[in-house]
Specification:
Blueprint: E1 2-3, H1 10-20, E2 28-32, H2 38-48, E3 53-57, H3 64-75, E4 80-83, H4 95-103, E5 109-113, H5 127-143, E6 159-162, H6 178-185, E7 190-194, H7 209-224, H8 226-250, H9 255-278, H10 289-318, H11 322-345, H12 357-369
Parallel strand pairs: 1-2, 2-3, 5-7
Antiparallel strand pairs: 4-6, 5-6
């Protein structure tokens, strides 16, 4: 049970789960990232509960909700693990059916679906949330047509899994969609049961634009790998760069000066995005933030000093549009930027003997460019 500020729901949640699993051996693990009194409420309920209740209150909220679920998997005493939200939009009364279905041993994951026969999504706040949910599901299934061919609701947070069927070490959770992470990393036997997605019992939804950004980053990383996620960030930077060049030249700024200004703005913006979404899993072993920024900023400016004269040559000699010339040189610069950031900016701090330079480069490029995706 990953929780974040769900104190008003804990008592009712435990009561309904306890009633649903009567006669079964079970435990409830709260993996909590709350800033309210949720931990205190969990402890109070645990003192009188007939079910064993454990609380893991995380000081570091690594991986968001998905990271909390993975931590719960590791802590569980049973290989049969059921994941659900703490807001009672996932009905505990559905637990016995899901556990019985998993016990038949012909599936590794039982997905509670809002969109399978008989399921509903009434608990989504409004038509916009319904549209976003269905669109996200359609895009996700389109990007993983093989792995998700038997799944109508890969975005749900309500599922049961045989822990032995998944490799926890390969999971790189970030944000809400841990089931997508599990299903995209490995081919699994999947079955679904319908459920009615209810209104929240209490509290406020945690959905936000930031979580939407996490989802997009997670989807890109899963489907294409780290190199392509780097390319997505670079593409956004390129669009921003082209827009700045166009806007400045449109008001009479010399195209070279416009290119310099655009380059500086996008260098800083791209660094912040790759910090957050591309190399976030490598930061803890790398140098400090400001040293990483200095290396990235210095390299990109050096690259710009080479790229911009080439761009000027293309404009002055070959009479190519300044916007097109900027785009061409940015595409050419992509590969060298990725290699530099993988091998230098986010290189682990030295902790002993190192392999040969050639072997190190080959291993790092392979590791960073070929992150798990769909086969």
């Amino acid at each position: 049970m990953p929780t974040y500020n769900e104190a008003p729901n804990v008592v009712e949640l435990v009561r309904r789960i306890s009633a649903a699993v009567v006669g079964r051996e079970a435990e409830i693990i709260f993996v909590d990232d709350s800033t309210d009194d949720t931990p205190d409420v969990v402890r109070a309920v645990a003192a009188s509960s007939r079910l064993p209740i454990r609380l893991i209150h995380r000081a570091e909220k690594t991986g968001g909700l998905g990271g909390a679920v993975v931590e719960g998997f590791r802590a569980a005493q049973s290989d049969t693990c059921l994941v659900m939200d703490g807001d009672l939009q996932h009905p505990p009364e559905k637990i016995p059916e899901m556990l019985d279905r998993l016990a038949r041993a012909d599936a590794d994951v039982v997905v509670a679906s809002r969109y399978a026969g008989g399921g509903t999504a009434h608990g989504l706040a409004d038509r916009t949330r319904v549209l976003v949910s269905k669109t996200s599901t359609a895009v996700t299934k389109a990007m993983f047509p093989v792995r998700l061919r038997d799944v109508t609701d890969p975005m749900t947070g309500f599922f049961a899994v045989d822990r032995r069927a998944i490799d926890l070490a390969t999971l790189r959770p970030q944000g809400f969609k841990i089931l997508l992470e599990i299903l995209a990393r490995k081919s699994l036997r999947i079955t679904e049961v319908p459920f009615d997605f209810a209104d929240r019992h209490a509290g406020e939804s945690k959905a936000s634009f930031l979580q939407g950004g996490h989802f997009i980053a997670q989807l890109a990383a899963l489907r294409f790998g780290k190199m392509s996620l780097f390319a997505v960030v670079g593409g956004l930077g390129a669009v921003a760069n082209l827009f700045v060049v166009w806007a400045l030249t449109a008001v009479g700024v010399n195209y070279v000066i416009a290119a310099v200004i655009a380059a500086e703005l996008t260098i800083v913006g791209n660094f912040l995005l790759i910090e957050r979404f591309v190399f976030h899993d490598m930061r803890h072993a790398a140098s400090t933030f400001w040293w990483r920024f200095a290396k990235s900023f210095g390299f990109n400016n050096a690259e710009a000093l080479i790229r911009i004269p080439i761009m000027a040559l293309m404009v002055e000699t070959w009479h190519i549009s300044s916007v097109i010339a900027t785009g061409i040189t940015l595409v050419v610069a992509f590969l060298v930027r990725f290699v530099f950031h993988s091998l230098v900016v986010y290189a682990p701090r030295r902790t002993g003997a190192r392999p040969s330079a050639a072997r190190h480069i080959l291993e790092e490029i392979d590791e960073q460019a070929m992150q798990p995706g769909e086969i």
